[in-house]
Write a structure and sequence with these properties.
Number of strands: 9
Distance between the termini: 46 Å
Largest sheet: 7 strands, mixed
Radius of gyration: 15 Å
CATH superfamily: Acid Proteases
Shape: globular
Strand content: over 45%
Structural class: mainly beta
Length: 122
């Protein structure tokens, strides 16, 4: 399933739309380098990533805000995708925005309640 999300450098700054494949097997979201750089988002560091065929690649990553539907925009880590990369919306971003994927219906929806854990009293 594909979704269109907005990407911005800050919560309230210019937003560019990008179409991403929803991939719960991917941790980070991958956004075209040209879009990120055009928004003034700079790489923060390099990360080693394992792709679906088992290879390991290195890509630059940085911080961005993603906007989806009526959810408040949320900060997330994005990979600076190269032309040969598949553009994906990863689980780190999905969970950060409080979203869940229903594989039966092929839809994304807001979590009813965000998971949270409390320490048991001693």
């Amino acid at each position: 399933m594909y979704v269109t999300v907005g990407v911005s450098a800050r919560r309230d700054s210019e937003t560019r739309e990008v179409r991403l494949l929803v991939d719960t097997g991917a941790f980070y979201s991958m956004v075209p380098r040209a879009i990120l750089e055009g928004l003034g988002i700079a790489p923060a560091y390099r990360e080693r990533l394992r792709v679906a065929d088992g290879r390991t690649v290195e890509r630059e990553v940085g911080d961005a805000f993603l906007h989806y539907s009526d959810r408040p925009p949320g900060p997330t880590i994005v990979v600076f995708a190269e032309p040969e990369d598949t553009l994906v919306l990863g689980v780190h971003t999905l969970e950060g925005l409080g979203l869940r994927v229903d594989p039966r219906s092929g839809t994304i929806s807001a979590m009813d309640v965000i998971p949270f854990y409390l320490m048991a009293e001693a």
